[in-house]
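Consortium newsletter contribution from the modelling node. Members have asked for a concrete example of what our holo predictions look like. Here is one, prepared for the adenosine-5'-diphosphate complex that several groups have been discussing at recent meetings.
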Amino acid sequence: METRPGLGLSQRDAGILDSIPEPLVIVDRQRTVTAANIAAVRDIGIAYPGRALALSLRHPAALAAVDEVLLGGKARTIEVALRAPTLRTFTLIVAPLQWTGTVGAVLIFHDVTSERRAQQMRADFVANASHELRSPLAAMVGFVETLRGPAKDDEAARERFLDIMAAEGARMTRLIEDLLSLSAIEADEHVIPQGRVDVARTLAEVIDTLVPSATEKDMRIRTEILVALPEVAGDSGQLAQVFRNLIENAIAYGRAGSEILIVARPLERMPEGTRPGVAVSVQDQGEGIAREHIPRLTERFYRVDSGRSRKLGGTGLGLAIVKHILNRHRGRLAIESEQGRGSRFTVSLPAA
Ligand code: ADP
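And here is the predicted structure:
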């Protein structure tokens, strides 16, 4: 007995069907499968030819579409979700198979799972971004009302409210800057950066700009570069942004009065690679991050504690930006953390 579809087809015809990468099924007027290609067996679970379609395609809307076509209807396209074996979404085209009148129907499945997922992610992203912008905006509008009404002649309240409004405005500005920089980075994520970057110098420039905010929390930034580093291939502005985001987080989430240790060293081999590179780690003494959160930290707007992140002025986009810049640079990010002690974020970049 034939253990794969192709019943009633010549070897050549079966070969032609199998060379089509999308699942394809042919049924006769009784809705019996007369042919199916390998993709249909593998991805849809269509049983051998000679059996009723309904036995392997348990989808009422799909079967109804086939029936309508078999009764002389025009070709149609529907969307079907199938457990195949994980839940996947397909657009299914059902078309009449005609020689002398309708002799059967052809079913062609096109997997749109990742397109649908991307659409959903875009929709979620827009919803999240709007939500993030709405809360500072609502706060500002609220204070404007209060300043016009109840607090009109209260000098002290007015100063306090104006301070809060300035802070909320700054938060919205940061959010919009991060959103714009994320979309700019995504736009050329597939363009390999051409420049050569001196990591030690870039780090020193970034640290210079961050010393004042560290000092405000009585924190010290210590840099350790014991061996000369090779240049890395990259865009110096973007790599500065990676280091800035990581060190800003170390300042935000590190304990007041503690030290941030930055170590840069040459790598003989990139993690999971063969090329040499440079590793830069940023280590803080903070509360650390619980293990279950670590894999999700680079998702947009993912935060362990959103109230806390917002209070610290965070946008929830810093590590997402880091991830996209590193993708573009064929770099890696490793996150280690011990709760109650601190975290270490290590960036590896291939040498130029
Ligand atoms: P945020 O603007 O909220 O800091 P990020 O994308 O930079 O956004 O970081 C996402 C989340 O990861 C933060 O909200 C925080 O919960 C966690 N996180 C990042 N860096 C650290 C760190 N050094 N120590 C502890 N938690 C951190």
